[in-house]
Design goal:
globular; 4-stranded antiparallel beta sheet; about 120 residues; mainly beta
Amino acid sequence: QEQLVESGGGLVQAGGSLRLSCQASGRTFSNYPMGWFRQAPGKEREFVAAIAWTGATAYVDSVKGRFTISRDNAKNTVHLQMNSLKPEDTAVYYCARRSMHGISTHRSQYDYWGQGTQVTVSS
């Protein structure tokens, strides 16, 4: 059974950085796309970034140039490096895995989810 566990969240001042990690279990991690989503209070869960098994990436416009997604298939981990953080980045961040090849920005296309990690950016 696939399990995803996020870590690395916390409280940071605007302009600061955080690096989120997602540890995946299972033997097929390297074969499928991984994504990061976030959910702020009172808002729907939204796509942030995704990475295919090839290393191809996609980002929501609001984080382009500030966030970088990467993966280490040997360690079954995916990371989200977040720089120049803004108060509007405050949310619970979720790691997710898709069971089909190809990047998707739609949360309904992801089958496995972590429990989330809180990121709070103070102004």
